[in-house]
């Protein structure tokens, strides 16, 4: 009885595995992630762009009732007292202020708006992503004139298993991905400042694990 039960159980498990494997083989690959190039080509041309999660302080001169603090939603929009669903992500604070003035002109006479930011995150396309054998792999908000050394300080340096001199920087240039070798170990462990380079919004830094 027990032997027959085990045989039946084994048969069922075999059939389940076959169905599962057939299902896996018929699954379609998802499309490659859409590339959204950063809007900054050089450090000198950098202007901070608003992104989801940013805390905005919107001041409307002589109209405190429509002023206030607002968080940019995950869809990149904000809603204020008189303005609904206005796109904010990807704009500079000045560009957003002008857009709000245009909307408020329907209700107020010659509105004057100022937008300031108290929590800086920025759009994903403008962040620097560090993956692999960093002590704290994460996305880092770009700051003007930021260098590789600044980024590595922000992520806590390398792990003990990192191969820092085989690290790669991936950058979108003219719509195409380009890769550049980095010498992070020389920079932060040997103090070779020549290995320091300027980083730009949208850069991806990949730090592999050492083979031994």
Task: Produce a short descriptive summary.
The chain is of the alpha+beta class and 212 residues long.
Keyphrases for this structure?
212 residues; alpha+beta; wza like fold; Outer membrane lipoprotein wza fold like; 2 domains; 5-stranded mixed sheet; 3-stranded antiparallel sheet; 4 helices; 23% helix; 23% strand
CATH topology of the largest domain: Outer membrane lipoprotein wza fold like
User: What profile does the largest beta sheet have?
Assistant: 5 strands, mixed
The number of strands is 10
The amount of beta strand, in percent, is 15-25%
Provide the low-confidence segments as ranges. Answer: none
Strand order of the largest sheet: 7-6-10-8-9
Q: How would the global form be characterised?
A: elongated
Give the averaged pLDDT, no decimals.
90
- Tally the structural domains: 2
* Helix-strand topology string: HEEEEHEEEHEEHE
CATH homologous superfamily assignment of the largest domain: Outer membrane lipoprotein wza domain like
Continuous helix count: 4
CA radius of gyration: 25 Å
Shape-level CATH architecture of the largest domain: Roll
CATH top level of the largest domain?
Alpha Beta
What is the rounded distance between the termini?
54 Å
Helix content estimate: 10-25%
Structural class: alpha+beta
